[in-house]
Amino acid sequence: MSNPYLPDIATIQRVKPETYDTTSFTLKFDDPGVWERFRFRPGQFVEISVFGAGEAPFCISSSAHGREDFDITVRRLGRVTQALHAMGEGAQVGVRGPLGNSFPLDEVAGKHVLFVGGGLGLAPLRPQILEVYRQRDKFQSITVLYGARTPDDLIYRDELEQWQNLEGMRCLLTVDVGGDGWTGNVGVVGSLLSEVKFDVGQAVVFVCGPPIMIRFVVRDLVAMGFGEDDIISTLERHMRCGIGKCNHCIHGDKYICLDGPVFTYRQMKAMMELEP
Amino acid sequence: MNAYFLPRDRVDELVGRLLRAAEVIAPKRVETGDVFYSPVSSPGEVAWDYKTAVEPLKRFLLPQQETVLRFSTGEKLRVEPVLEEKDRIFLAVRNCDVTGVNVLDAMFGGEIEDPYYMARRRRATFISLACLEADEQCFCVCGDAGPFLKNGYDQQWTPLAEGMLIEVGSDKGQALADAHQDLLSPAEPDQVAEKLQLAKRAEETFGEFRSYIAAAMRRLTLAETPDEVWERLADHCVECGGCTFLCPTCSCFTVTDRLEGDGGVRERHWDACLYNCYAREASGHNPRAEHSQRLRARFFHKLSHQWAQRNGRHACVGCGRCVVGCQAWAHMSAATEAIRRG
Amino acid sequence: MAEIATICPYCGCGCGLYLHVANSRVVGTAPMRAHPVSRGRLCLKGWHAHELADSPDRLTRPLVRRGDELQEASWEEAVSEVVRGLQGVIERAGPQAVGVLGSARCSNEDNYLLVRFARAVVGTQNIDSGLAAYSLPEQIAAVSDARIADLDDADLIFLVGAEPGEEEPAVGAHIYRALQRGAKLVTASVRRHALARLAALHLPLKPGAEAAALGSLLYELVVERKLAGDADVTDLTAALADLKPAGAEGKTGLAAALVSGAADLWQAAEKVVVVFSSALAASVEGARAVSAMGAFRALGAGPRVAVLGLLGRCNLRGSWDMGVRRGFLPGAPAGDLAAEGRLKAAWGGDFASGEGLPAWEILDQCQALYVMGDDPSRNLPDWAARRARLEQVKFLVVQDLFLSPLAELAHVVLPAASFAEKDGTVTNLEGRVQLVRAAVKAPGEAREDWRIIAELSRAFGKPVSPQSAADVFAEISQAVPAYAGLSHHSLQAAGGAEIGRDGAADALAGAISALRAAEDGAQAAEQFPLLLVADPTLGTWAEEVSVSHLPVAGREFTVTGKDYPDGMLVLNPADGRKNDLRPGRPVEVASAHGAGRMQVKFSPEVPEGIAVTPYHHAARHRIMNIVAEVETGRPVFAPTPVSVGAGK
Ligand SMILES: Cc1cc2nc3c(=O)[nH]c(=O)nc-3n(C[C@H](O)[C@H](O)[C@H](O)COP(=O)(O)OP(=O)(O)OC[C@H]3O[C@@H](n4cnc5c(N)ncnc54)[C@H](O)[C@@H]3O)c2cc1C
Ligand code: SF4
Ligand code: SF4
Ligand code: SF4
């Protein structure tokens, strides 16, 4: 039996600052054999060790396809994230994973696909956006709505520009508070929902962002007629082991790490009933 | 399964052999008079007449603090697990505590195994000593975990007038019996009858603490308990964590890194879901910021059908340790009473 | 695995616990069922006691200041540095220029040798407790006579300004169990805390009127209900003249009906235990309120009455007994000739036997400071102002487990052994002398506090004879009458031995003069509509060095500092809304004395019109009015009218 607590060693290939407090790291396993069994699916996460500082969970934010390394996008907050931000290219970290369940893909083929992201919430959506786009023939349409507090809080800005000009994808941006040089939409991301023109009965939506944003957006989506099983989100909780042993991430009758982090709105509602 | 008889004057001989074969953990009276499950080095150290031990067996399988990894951060990062493996026989331990281990097995086993727990668990043998008389705080009868068990142990010993009745409950227990056949004889029907008599009498010795587990389970499962119950309970809990640390089935842990010289260790420590910061996130957001929310989550995890299904049974074995250890008055017996009354 | 029976190093309850030891490391804590106080229970701190010994943040080598930096040094260097530094000050300014602070966290042996070091080796009488501004040894000794077990057959428990669930949880456990068997609880405090919510009756205390409120109840009991019995209460009655409940509502803020309700419960009881804590002692009327309790014991009729003063640190009581207390020698007040004789014999000659300065004056006046196991930074109301002064001290030595905020200012820092690494005794709040046992070796070069003191005494050319903690205790049993006949050997059993108090004053006389002087409660003013109170029962241990460094439990004690980095201001939600405030947000708090920023918390526990802040948060600011208490001269926070700016 392999030890699920034993991290594999990976080296930081690239450090890319996204915002004033958020940075993306590209990680590659030192032992190429690890990549073979790593094979993650969009929505899954990893536990990253900065030895001496500790371990923390981050979703994988890069494409599940065509690469031999992967990205995480990390906001600087506490011990581990601060230590990570202090690391540069060539530094080594520990990686456990991939962990958790993933976004449905084949199950939602044939539908209009809507992504609604807020702030750092674009990170877990990114692998799914890229995958859906790669297989765009299978879907009726792809729409990405992304908002952040200010223009300085938008992550993946270079890529957002690309997406806005892509054939086969509609990508709209907004910020809560504009600023110098911002000529785009101003308003919460929910305000972009009025741009949705497709038949919501034929659609699926993936929503990620801060809890308050999720709450409001989901309310709007329900009002628009999205089915409870067609609203899909990821949840975050304080987490230690990532494999359903430490119990920190329990919410109601679920382990976020094991049963999630991806849940349908119907599941989330049931969890909220058990543990409001 | 088979049953044997071990005459009283051969008990020490058998214990002596166990001591030579493995580390033996048995009830031991320390100088204050309290009893701990603790390594013994001679048969005379076993406190056969004890009622209950201060702590359950959890510490031996999931230590309060343990090193799980060692890392060196020199030139090249190296990480290796630190696994403890040794044969251990848990002798004369209580049935509630053995049941507690069975619950832990479900939590730490399953599809993804916890290698630290399992390494110790696989090499452990549990010989229980059935209780003839309950301690003040006990309510294993309500927890479906004693005083006598039908299974779940490797061996169950019952002190009869003339010696021990040994019931075998697993292959491990059978192998142990087989290895010491020279000291044992097959149990006679009247010896089994004597045990049944003792078991019946034991049930009558339970005291004031009851736990309305079934009623509480129902209400928890359906999330029927009004907020006021939890708020009231919160005024009766000072967040010491004692109930969780003393509970045979509470198994939350947290993880810390510690730097030592050129590297360091990763350790895990018991944690308590009733603590304020247990679920607090780095952003400062705390999904269970209210004490009442933490109590609700704890009892939901211990008693709801949802979790009972995942773990094979609900997570209270009625050992009563939370009753003894509660720094206020929000232990299992008080809580189930409050939940039942709504 | 071995289980070492010992005593919890935190609060004054003195719970028994076991340390689990494996591979020469303390790896766990377990409660002690056989212990008469804790009976198988521990609180959050106690459950994590092993982490104190095992904390990676422990000091392991002496540190000596070189320039701006504290650098590691050998013991030889550090000791000679201490001798040089202290002797320099002694030569220039005399031994009285050296001030010494002992510790309620250290053992009797540590404190006793420290007193001997101060008085007989250095030759200074300026020795006091690091907690002096926070506690009232005289007044508490005069009134507190109960044992914790008295709670177990009380049918009325009267909690005054105490929140034992938070401060002394093991006492809280006895109260929770008393409630279960049907005992009644009456609480009197500013905040309506958890136990107050379970009380049969809660008396909302008006800040600053604590003594008057007690006086009102006494009036009802003594004058109206004639519970004095045969006792002569002429003077007491005279002192209470202005406190008749019906007429004193303006003074005390207590409705007469509440006072009479409390008196009904009192009369219906057979045994009353009155419990108070450091929370009361730290208030501006603290000394008077505590003294006033003495009158309860003088009631000749009605229920039996016992008074229990709670003490917040594991050996506060013992450190006082050892003479870590202004104006006190080991076992007797300064000036007690018999005591002087005993000590001369034990210490080999003359020593500085005077009263000395209280801690706050020691910090202000002494040129050299020697501080063992304490950090006054959270116990002194005006720490913010004093910190600047401490930076000027010519020579500061700190002996501690961690690099505390005070240690960071020191010239020499000496690494001490924790409770898990030394033998010794501590005396709990009720006078239970108990044995602390070494379970493992101290980390690195850390040493027992008493051994450090012994080493220093030797370096000063005045070696002390004891070679072990048991030897030191043998000397204590000779020097301190209450400890006579005890030895480490005789204290082996769980619960140790119970002792009485040396040199306690007359309780009734103290009560009468205190009640005569009782003040009216404080009032808010028009431009400062809220009354700000510093509450030591709020986050009693939050951000304390000894718990903040615990690898796991530290999380629970540092969170207040993370959530309320500038200090926590607790308001009734109605007041919060009135001022347009939002929880967690910073606000500007202003008074006639100063202004500062704090973060807001809403809690229905706090009555409208009042704002509460943890005592140690108040100490960081210059918002509150700091006054010298009339009785003792202690600096204390007075309830201070404040305004809160609009929330941002
Ligand atoms: C499934 C999942 C995916 C996540 N993905 C991302 C991501 O892509 N980018 C990102 O910046 N953040 C992500 N987070 C949040 C991230 O894990 C926390 O910000 C991080 O744990 C903070 O660690 P710290 O050591 O810096 O903070 P500290 O406050 O020092 O926390 C110490 C420990 O507490 C736990 N912890 C604290 N906060 C959280 C939290 N919010 N969630 C889980 N554990 C926590 C961790 O074990 C952490 O090591 C994710 C969390 C989860 C559960
Ligand atoms: S909840 Fe209490 S009684 Fe039940 S198993 Fe745990 S400690 Fe024992
Ligand atoms: S033992 Fe009692 S007081 Fe302590 S956390 Fe559990 S319920 Fe709360
Ligand atoms: S109540 Fe006091 S003595 Fe008891 S465990 Fe808690 S801190 Fe220690």
Structure description:
The complex is a heterotrimer of chains A (276), B (342) and C (648). Chain A has 276 residues and is an alpha/beta fold. Chain A has 2 domains: 8-99, Beta Barrel (Elongation Factor Tu (Ef-tu), domain 3), CATH 2.40.30.10; 106-234, Nucleotide-binding domain of ferredoxin-NADP reductase (FNR) module (Rossmann fold, 3-Layer(aba) Sandwich). Chain A contains 7 helices and 15 strands. The radius of gyration of chain A is 18 Å and the shape is globular. The N and C termini of chain A lie far apart (38 Å). The mean pLDDT of chain A is 94. Chain B has 342 residues and is α+β, with helices and mostly antiparallel strands. Chain B has 2 domains: 3-203, no CATH class; 213-341, no CATH class. Chain B has 14 helices and 12 strands. An 8-stranded mixed beta sheet of chain B has the order 3-2-6-7-8-9-1-10, with helices on both faces. In chain B, strands 5-4-12-11 form a 4-stranded antiparallel beta sheet, with no helix packed on it. In chain B, a hairpin with a 3-residue loop joins strand 8 (155-159) and strand 9. In chain B, helix 8 (213-221) packs across helix 14 (332-341), helix 9 (227-235) packs across helix 11 (291-303) and helix 11 (291-303) packs across helix 12 (305-311). The longest helix of chain B has 15 residues, at 189-203. By secondary structure, chain C is of the alpha/beta class. Chain C folds into 4 domains: 2-54, ADC-like domains (N-terminal domain of TfIIb); 63-129 and 315-487, Rossmann fold (3-Layer(aba) Sandwich), CATH 3.40.50; 137-310, Dimethylsulfoxide Reductase, domain 2 (3-Layer(aba) Sandwich), CATH 3.40.228.10; 522-646, Barwin-like endoglucanases, CATH 2.40.40.20. Chain C is built from 25 helices and 28 strands. In chain C, the strands form 7 sheets. Chain C has a 7-stranded mixed beta sheet with strand order 5-4-17-16-15-6-7, sandwiched between helices. In chain C, strands 21-25-22-24-23-28 form a 6-stranded mixed beta barrel. In chain C, helix 7 (194-197) links the parallel strand 9 (184-189) and strand 10. In chain C, helix 4 packs across helix 20 (469-479) and helix 8 packs across helix 11 (256-268). The longest helix of chain C has 19 residues, at 75-93. Chains in contact: A-B, B-C. At the B-C interface, strand 3, helix 10, strand 11 and strand 12 of B face strand 1, strand 2, strand 3, helix 1 and helix 6 of C. The structure holds flavin-adenine dinucleotide and iron/sulfur cluster (3 copies).
